[in-house]
Amino acid sequence: xxxxxxxxxxxxxxxxxxxxxxxxxxxxxxxxxxxxxxxxxxxxxxxxxxxxxxxxxxxxxxxxxxxxxxxxxxxxxxxxxxxxxxxxxxxxxxxxxxxxxxxxxxxxxxxxxxxxxxxxxxxxxxxxxxxxxxxxxxxxxxxxxxxxxxxxxxxxxxxxxxxxxxxxxxxxxxxxxxxxxxxxxxxxxxxxxxxxxxxxxxxxxxxxxxxxxxxxxxxxxxxxxxxxxxxxxxxxxxxxxxxxxxxxxxxxxxxxxxxxxxxxxxxxxxxxxxxxxxxxxxxxxxxxxxxxxxxxxxxxxxxxxxxxxxxxxxxxxxxxxxxxxxxxxxxxx
Amino acid sequence: xxxxxxxxxxxxxxxxxxxxxxxxxxxxxxxxxxxxxxxxxxxxxxxxxxxxxxxxxxxxxxxxxxxxxxxxxxxxxxxxxxxxxxxxxxxxxxxxxxxxxxxxxxxxxxxxxxxxxxxxxxxxxxxxxxxxxxxxxxxxxxxxxxxxxxxxxxxxxxxxxxxxxxxxxxxxxxxxxxxxxxxxxxxxxxxxxxxxxxxxxxxxxxxxxxxxxxxxxxxxxxxxxxxxxxxxxxxxxxxxxxxxxxxxxxxxxxxxxxxxxxxxxxxxxxxxxxxxxxxxxxxxxxxxxxxxxxxxxxxxxxxxxxxxxxxxxxxxxxxxxxxxxxxxxxxxxxxx
Lengths: 333, 336
Hints:
The complex is a heterodimer of chains A (333) and B (336). Chain A contains 13 helices and 2 strands.
């Protein structure tokens, strides 16, 4: 178990580093200098080549890339001071740099936006499991019935529609045209739990119902398989109630493949749900990322990528550990 | 070299000896692809979806001809001839007037371009781009999967690591970072930008799309490698390249066709999604961009939004269901 963890954390860190290097290099070697945008803004669109060089010096683009990347990476663990022309910015660890847009600390912006994305992820993933697994298990028990067939067919069609169309139409029809749901907004949970809940309810329902279709199919499929296993028959034969057999025996092994997908989905949810945040105008990690890319705000893009890579790696490790708990045959090595 | 016993219907010669010659003919061997194709033809959903996809393909292939037949084009005219300059809504046709035969889908609010012409050209962009991306990503995925599975060792480790890396790498962030970089590079040459942005999008979709195929093929190859016919070929000294192409590839037809057919709808959807976010194709009509343009007009002019939405939804659902049907048809475990 211990050696497994060490191995996975090492290979995971390697992936995180590579992803962040790739994004860094993409901007660095891109045809348009990331300094150009800042230069234009600060000089009221009169950015001369000489001024651009000055801005590039200021942002460190005249130094070798590995040196600048090193500074950035070191800032994650140690305090650093960023010098921006004549002004200095203290950036306590974990320092993600300062945004080119308004020169505020990226870490602070992150702290402001991450709760929005976490709230979305928590609600959506809860619905994935709650609706998806429940409906899937019920369908597996009534396998072959009309209800089961209708369910399988409808989830197949529904999940084939691109997500952004579903989200966009839900927003337009349910919020704009009919105002069945109020406009989505984020209120911190600690300020007002009720407003937090009602503000995000529609968004959760859209994300959750759409995502749950996949879970319904996965859990139905693996449940059908599990119910056909010998140990289920043995459990029935020794007189256990069907309910106990389903929940205690079959469900446990049926959940294993579902958990894998769930882990990755949570990771992607945490790294920002770009379409959801754009359509419902929520200021989360995803919208932060697109806005930053459009103005070439490298420190912010780096931060969003880092969040994604770390959450994917961490979720993968957690999934493997949960595996070994759910399925005693799995040994971590 | 004969194919392995993937053909389920192949019968044992000695057992056949007792049968009448006529009966022997009936149980002639059929290849797995043949079996799958026969199953597909009997599947009503597959046939309907295929017809829908075919319809869209015809629209895409002959978009220009259809447009000139209907008498519309995507050129921007003097907007004042088609839209009210105060409300920006069209003078004729939807939403405020009845059907306008000159513009079957109406005209866009604001600049007055013809919606039907933009729609058919958008269909062309979408299908052409998705096909290119699916062909490229399947080819690359199959090649890398074959190499990783067959050669093993260090090659396998490197390719498997690349698969994991690219699966971790955020598609949207990658696309968001790459698209503006490419577009800035050719921003001064609109003629070139049109092609560059098309191929750049194909490249982005391919870079983030080859991994699933590669992983699938690698797994299959790992199992095939240990089969007798491959070992036999090795023993008699068949060169590796020949083993890969002549022995392995024919056995990988099913995963290749399945990944290709399920890749198409994913790319159609991704293209429109990226255009909707404003980082898609430049200089060509795209359903995604129409959706983005039409969203603010929803309450006054819903038809404007619905045309591309229905286009994407119907095409993607038909492609997905067809892909699922193909997968079922190739799967010997599903019975009908």
